[in-house]
Automatic annotation (TrEMBL):
The keyword Protein biosynthesis does not apply. This is AraC family transcriptional regulator. Keywords: DNA-binding, Repressor, Transcription, Transcription regulation. InterPro entries: AraC-bd, Homeodomain-like_sf, HTH_AraC, HTH_AraC-typ_CS, RmlC-like_jellyroll, RmlC_Cupin_sf. One of its GO terms (molecular function) is DNA-binding transcription factor activity. Residues 138-238 form the HTH araC/xylS-type domain. It holds the Pfam family HTH_18.
Amino acid sequence: MTLLAIRDLHHDASHEAMPHTHPQGQLFAVRAGLVSAVADGRRWVMPPGCLGWIPPGVTHGAVFHARTEGLNLYVDEAWSRRYWPDRLRVIRRTPLLTALLDTLRRFDSVPECYALVLADALGREPDQPLNLPMPADPRLAGLAAELLRRPDDDTGLDDWARRLGMTRRTLTRRFAAETGWSVGQWRQQARLLLAMERLAAGAAVTVVALDMGYQSVSAFIAMFKKYLGRPPGAWFDPA
């Protein structure tokens, strides 16, 4: 039985994988570029230096926003369900995880002990705040789609409530019930993920900041550091 199958990951910018499932678990290890995925009712991004885990049987599609390089690991279904996380996760690739992945590539058949160490190391890392819960209600889904299409739009809640044919209170209550976040928190997170996609594709920080509705580049960089711990250049500069 093959516990882990390791494949090089190479995709050109704008490559899209339509929604699909597979019996194995899948681990993305992104070295350059950026992968975004829609799965489990959420939108996820996997930037350089991160690992993205998709459990067996989870329907997912993916878009590659720049030329993307890295590794794909396919994990045996029974092993995935026994030892690996049961939900989609994005985590930082630590020096330990990097060393483990480099070591695993040397084997034609990965030893069980190494596979167990990798699963344990992954399980100990905290989630990165790189996902966005999508509302299921058709009206709220329309609001979410518009905020993703126009991230610089600062339309207020009262105006959105009128457009959607509900009171402000109903809008805020339903949105929070479906996503766990307020509309303002959701919009902030949407801007963060969209910014990462555009930066990965090569857009300048100044351009992205303005496109996301920020009045200054410094405010945009401060937001990035607040939520991700590092400025944009630390994620995407070639150096």
